[in-house]
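Q: Got a minute? One more chain.
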Amino acid sequence: MNILITGADRGLGYGMTEELLRRGHTVFAGQYLNKWNELETLQQQYPERLHLISLDIGSQDSVDEAKRRIMQTTDRLDAIINNAGVNGRSPDDEPFKQNYETMLEVYNINAIGAIRVTEAFHDMLEKGSGKRLMFISSEAGSVTESGRTDFYSYCMSKAALNMYVKILFNRLRPDGYRFRLYHPGWIKSYMGGQLSDRGELTIAEAGERAVDYFFDQQVDEEQLVLRGYNGRILSF
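A: Always. Here it is, folded:
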């Protein structure tokens, strides 16, 4: 399969990229961190199947340029994994002390960024065989289950993403599109800016579990659910 994944530089995105390559897929890896070289090292192992694509999903120009570059290699995609995101935590993450510019940036990336990518590459999915749309969400976006008292920007952006995916599912499922909405759990990743030793899953473990679910042939395609890394179905 030809698969586009955003936010592939490190963390879960890198873990999924490595796992997809291990399983024989061709990956177009959205690269945001120009000075982060793990993808370059991985490309040495898979020079024919790993394509590094500069991609900032917060910018329409960047998304358009990424599509132009990918189309130099292929005119079709079988799957898109919308993974890129930011946590948006700020020192003033308290009621009545929000940084509105930060909030808008988080929303622009976590919610609208996935829309930009999906709309830009929709015609390439139409030509592919998989028609798979995968979205990394979070339990933080569940209005029903939320017990949080901070991370306003992140939680609100993921709730908005969940609604977008639900509407898109209603629209495109009759045309044969396959959807996955996934909560990857607490990962020992770089979400806080540096590699954390706290979490339930390593990057490799998280990547493997996500890919297993994304390509599980036993999933009921007629139901959209927010599924967690441990198999639990969450309200959203």
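A: The longest strand covers residues 26-31.
Q: Perfect, thanks.
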